[in-house]
Amino acid sequence: MTEVVGRIRPASNVPTRLLLFGGIALLIFCIFPFVAGEFQTNLMAKLLLFGALGVSLDLVWGFTGILSFAHGVFFTLGGYVAAYYLKLNLSASANNYGGTLPDFMVWNGLTELPWFIAPLQFFPVAAIAMLLIPAGFAYVIGWFIFRSKVSGVYITIITLAISSALTTFFISQQAYTGGTNGITDVSKLSLLGIVIPPIGLYFIILFFTAALIAGGWWLTQSNFGLILRSIKENEKRISYLGYDVAGFKIFIWTLSAAIAGIAGGLFVPLNRFISPVYLAVAFGTQVVIWVAVGGRGTLFGPLIAAILLGQVQNSVDRITQDWQLIVGFILLLVVLFLPDGLMSLLPKPLRFTENNQVTGYLPPAPKKR
Amino acid sequence: MSVCALQIGSSLVSSLIDLAQTAPAEPKAAFSMIAFANQLLNGVGIVGILLLTGLGLAITFGVMRIINLAHGEFIMLGAYVSFVLQSAFKMDLLLTIPFAFLFTALVGAVVELTIIRRLYGRPLETLLATWGLSIVMQGIVKLIFTAQLKYVKAPPYIRGNLTVFGSGEQAVEISYYRLFIVVVALLLLALTAFLLYKTSLGREVRAVTQSREMAKCLGVNTSLIDMATFAYGCGLAGIAGSVISSLKSVAPPMGQDYLVDAWMTVVAGGVDKLVGVLAGAALIGESKAAIAFLLDDPAARVIVLAALIILIRYRPEGLFTIQKRA
Amino acid sequence: MQTVSSTADLDAIDSMETVLAVRDLKVVFSGFQALKGVNLDVGDQEIVTIIGPNGAGKSTLLDAIVGKSPVASGQVIYHGQDITNKNSHEIARMGIGRKFQNPNVYNDLSVFENILLALKGNHTVFSSIRSKMTRLKKEKIELVLDQIGLLDKGYTKVASLSHGQKQWVEIGMVIAQDPTVVLLDEPTAGMTADETHLTGEIIKAIAQSHSVVVIEHDMEFVKQIAQRIVVLHQGEKLAEGSVGEIQSNPRVIEVYLGREQIDSAA
Question: Could you tell me which chain C residue has the CA closest to the CA of A362?
């Protein structure tokens, strides 16, 4: 190995075993849609997005110690943006009313498109808004709650309140949001005039999720990741070292909301509708459960848990309608008996939780004092 | 980023403006002092409910620092106790209240023994576990009673309205039932304050929460105190559920609405003194009523929450808390 | 910039090259006056030792300087600039480092990582994302590890170290931070006599290029390092002077040393 002057290359910034397992996993996910059929492909695409949503929460919860029930909200805000775009691009013949005005607006007596929704009919605007609206919303909330000196528990309760207040608010604004039903019957996603088939959508989502995992790895392995872990262990101490803890929290919070927003935006062309169900606390709880079950502070845990629990729910739903009860039990049991989640059952090298920035170096030979 | 925040903000504002503009079209909602006074009295009722539902939290969280997200489900349990006793034995709602207290306190004691006790000193874990518990409790009640709405009848002597002044269309009045809620809430507040600050039991409770080790050395049975205090807080939630059971319907998810509001009350008021709950309830209840009068309920929820988020930026300890060291 | 109350004070600052000045500082906790108007000057490359019985307000004084406890009235002036009640990270960035009474270190991280976090540099969000591990940084960290005698422990988790070693880790963090003013709260608590002596030598080395404020109980240690001693009692400054002056001050003997002598006699 050649000597890098001025900079030390860690022995293994990306461990070989990570490349190996990641590669195998990626390969399986690439083959999956060709053997599994359309239903399973769509389900898997959905679960990958849920996993990505879990990872976004894990960045703020598992890595930084801020538990949020509002990540479903960020996801859904991105989802509404995408839904407006797809709804507004429904061809006139496909629309019940022949016009460009979405059906739910017609039903509620709107005669023209509200000015704040109109720009979303253009793809670039919608694509940027899908990320910026959740991020901007998160930034404003974050600026207030993290610059304040309230403890983590209060913040969690505030996120609970945000989720519940926004749910009622979206339901009440029928003319603009479609009320309880949300925005339904949206058009299929088409890019450059070509309608994207389900398998195409699957690969877009797979690419997004894989990129998120890779980016998340890079971020959490950086000095920034080390600071996040310090904030989680003791946020006061690091401020006496000159770090603006609130700034770090606001940044990761906003970034995580942007990721959740993109996941939500990709969810809508797949799901073909969005509704306040995804704003509600129950969905926010689902996200928390994926992270708790998978393992906090691990990048792969939430993804694995989302896929596992999603598949279980899919098969259990045919037997019982009481999935929520099972979810509650799972959460309770995990907190009491498996606090580090499923990933803690794996042997240590396969959890990929160590920070390689430091473990990558060999210790210097001890000197005599 | 700020542009986009502005966009959300302005879309919210514009829809609120729309609402405000459409409001006068309906004759009922036209602004009048009488209607406004009625709404303020309505607010008194909301204050009573917030106080009643927040009081249990002021004990479990304020005194013991336990984050109980299943608080709403204890309220729900209390309501179901009243429903069961009324439908099985035709019992008067008032008579069911002690049973609601006893039953929920018992469940609370079991929960403390099996779950809370394992998680002392780990607030986020407690929060998660009690959240799981709340889902489980809703699920179990749904299994037993189905998701159907149940109704509890208020006794005849607290039906009807008390007219404060005026008459007929111009009357300013408050329902006896809401008054009853306010009275119960204030009585419970007084009783709890008495127990906590004036009795030797209360002194032991405060000793345990301030220094567990020291209290143990002084011969206080700390684990019994923990259990009893938590059970008492849950029992208060049970009373709240029982008292408000005939206000609306009784259903498994009913606790969730009260949970968020109860927590907001506690956050706004601060928890170092019991009176903080009263202040928080008064603040949130009346501003909700006033905003709901000018706009509508969902807008009131959003605005009160936004105000609260701004409040904690500048008064993180809540409105009624003293500065403490470290 | 804040003007200092009287010209006499200004002259004093000029002549002493005062780096850190505390003026009539009051700190109140729910009605209790923890500090009742304390004055303190710290000169360039000077070691100021603060002693005083428990509850004298020693730690509170440091807390108020670094922005941990809110100041009710009075001023903290650093290089002529008023830093009273600024955010703790701003104060740290200006050049004031703090070691806490109980070692306040990251148990879940390695010694190396603890020092890395403290290492002087640009501590903003974006610079930390871009920041790379460089040979220069590694050498700096190893230099600090060597100075605190933990070079061979760099890769162990702090949780597995002894109490004394944790104290050193935190002293190492302050060294890595390279502030102008170093505030040390009981750096030798829980150390053996040998360790304490070694710590004294480390502090003297730090004082070669920094101003140091040390809170201590151990009189032997105070004698080893002290240049100037400040005695606090019940939130007020009781006395100030050299080791000899303090030892012969009747008021100090009465409230502090006297009691200790009685204690040791008993």
Answer: C155
